[in-house]
Amino acid sequence: MIHYPKCDNSLIRLSQSQLNLLETCPPQFKKIYLDHLNFPVSLESQRSLNWGNQFHQLMQQHFMGLSIDAVLAQYSNLSEVIKVLFKCIVEKHILNSQFWTEAEHYITFKKDNYLLTAIYDLLIVKNNQVQILDWKTYLKPNDKKQLESDWQTRLYLYLLAETSTYSPENISMTYWFIKDKYKPQYLSFQYSQNQHQQTKSDLSKLLNYLNYNLYDINQDNNNFGHHKNCKDKCPYHDYLCLKKTSELTFMTE
What we know:
Distance between the termini: 23 Å
Number of helices: 10
Radius of gyration: 21 Å
Largest sheet: 6 strands, mixed
């Protein structure tokens, strides 16, 4: 039996990716974050991941005031992407030396038995307004509502409101999509007090659900089952059900 931390005396770190997976597919959440079993990463996915990590690192260095010219000189394709993006960011957010910025801002917030965490690619503070910027190395999605309901958007806005003196109405978040190197696109979300209260309520429900499952699994009960609508919404449903059927067939042979 794998021993899981009891929810009454252990502080468990949770990020937006974990909250998204817990809400989408509890069995997959258990498999990846509790059993520590992951799917093998394809060569193409690994290359994309490496490129994204390099891009984020260069953006961090630039906004920390460090020169990235030597690196860009070696990678002309990456240089074009970043130069166009810088121009768009300055125009959109009206950046100048009077504004305070911080790259890779790490934040934590204790809620019940959990430590909620976020890393902001860039924070921009001007006057009484604070903006969260996040870099995405894929194309701008067509469904803005889906991104708005994503736990990255909700958690990042929520945590900043909870850990700062800024009211929700003075907080916003902008995603920059740089897959098209000649025309970066963006989606912005303005926060509000009503959204903050809704996120607080939804987050409490999700953490209570996690509490229940962690307690139950420590009692040797099999939990973290599929949601009722899992088949329609979960990308892992068919894989996990097929895998479970195969395991049962093997055990009975």
